[in-house]
Amino acid sequence: MAKWALITGASSGIGWATAEALGAQGFSLFLTGRRTERLNNLAGHLRTKFPGIQTKLGSFDISDRDETQEFLKAHYADLAHVDVLVNNAGLARGVDKIQHADIHDWDIMIDTNVKGLLYMTRGVVEHMVRRNSGHIVNIGSVAGRWTYPGGGVYCATKFAVRAISEGLRMDLSGTDVRVTNIEPGMVNTEFSKVRLQDQQKADKVYEGMTPLRAEDIAETIAWCVGRPKHVNIQELVIYPTDQAHVGIVSRRSE
Length: 254
Ligand code: NDP
Ligand code: 8X3
What we know:
single chain, Rossmann fold, seven-stranded parallel beta sheet, two-stranded antiparallel sheet, 17% strand, globular, binds NADPH dihydro-nicotinamide-adenine-dinucleotide phosphate, binds 2-hydroxyethylsulfonic acid
């Protein structure tokens, strides 16, 4: 029987790379995001690269409770077979200080990174508990452990991901369902472009340093998922070598 992984935010960055890494492990893949064309391209690419796997797609806005509930309801039977849920969809919006920030940016971050992750978890974990098997991998961040100026609300959402991961692990105690929180530092994806709404500003974020690649995080996720069932990697902080801490980046060209 096929083993299935559902990856949210698979249309780009870490989610896309994770689809490739889990596809290489023989997982059939349920890929979600808003950009349907990207998901179609990814599914085509994966089926060519890994002919033995199956793919399913879900295009919806995870920050929208009704849309997400509709997806969960429509795919209730499929979700019963999900072995691995990678809660990856997320974003930062803006770097303004709290006293100047756009409240709309806060709503988007909180609704996506916290509420969207919770909706998906609720929809999948009940099946895992029933089967007494499964693995939920949340993509937190170093921003879920340490705060930096202009990042207060994004950091709050990732602190929430850490708390949810810990609370869920406690709630699942006594079952064989595992929960992992991956906490990356700087990864060069579309993240900074989405946050700053400007490609040139986004490029400057990584200037003179070597950031993590999406594949670095994907390989780590695949490794966590591939551990024997009695092993749960609870949390992992992964920085690029050029980043000693949030805000402490070695730019070798300076
Ligand atoms: P990308 O911007 O490249 O990818 C983000 C993904 O999330 C996209 O596939 C996007 O899909 C999806 N997404 C965003 N909003 C929604 C939404 N409302 N509904 C459905 N899907 C959504 O960034 P990354 O790959 O870097 O980000 C992945 C995760 O990693 C995020 O949770 C981020 O916070 C976290 N992270 C990133 C770091 C970095 O430095 N890059 C470091 C630490 C953590 P679409 O637009 O098609 O909907
Ligand atoms: C993204 C990493 O340091 O930009 O979560 O917040 S950081």
